[in-house]
Amino acid sequence: MTERTxxxxxxxxxxxxxxxxxxxxxxxxxxxGLDYVYELVDISARNVPESALPDLLSxxxxxxxxxxxxxxxxxxxxxxHLDDLSEDARMLGAVNTVVFSDGKRIGHNTDWYGFHESFxxxxxxxxxxxxxxxxxxxxxxxxxxxxLKLGIARLDIYDQDPxxxxxxxxxxxGRFGEGRAAVAEAPAAVLPEADGLIHAxxxxxxxxxxxxxxxxxxxxxxxxxxxxxxxxxxxxIATAAAKGCRTLPGGGxxxxxxxxxxxxxxxxxxDAERMSAHFAEMFxxxxxx
Length: 289
Prior knowledge:
This protein is α/β, with parallel strands linked by helices. It folds into two domains: 139 residues, 3-Layer(aba) Sandwich (Rossmann fold); 138 residues, 3-Layer(aba) Sandwich (Rossmann fold).
């Protein structure tokens, strides 16, 4: 059988025109000698509603895509439109990668791995007794899982929807043991006692400017991790760095979730260090422009 050398993949989401995923994936594809095309499917640019998701999935399937990444606001909404889920995706109830194979749509989650790898590399030795997670949506569930895998003893979860935070805390306690996760009424109720802050909402992106917590709640002793990487230095990261905090921008998670997705799309082992170097090169070029 002839080995497949051409792949077309995508990213379905809202306000994603600044995504670095196309360049990151396509450069790695070329390094493997592949004809690899990565296309943005942006509902904002197309001016279609969130209810268009089923049609977009069908469109990509019909066009012969190998799969597609999934981002805000679809990481949980996509699940009813899939045929099966990987163990990670089923456990987390969130999907960021869909593989089209043999007429089936299989959902995977590489977000938790992306955050886990990024944290281990970017915040070695960080105190992990207690942390606040802001955001319990599709990205938040993956980051929360990674946080407890990283050994954070207690994770307090704040979300604008307290019921969603409650469901996530209950899932985590069922998976990791009672008392590992709890609902936070407000960031101000937790951060004075916490070692660090993890941010997992779209706040800080160009379409959602601002900060997820008040600046005066951040102390120099905190470490601060953001999953937003457009821009790489969000207002949250800049504010924390100015106070002397150890910081983890969202770029690392973006790189390592892409490593996992590339592997799923084409069955080849990506070079994580090469992808990391390319990611840094892209941002350095923008900074110099």
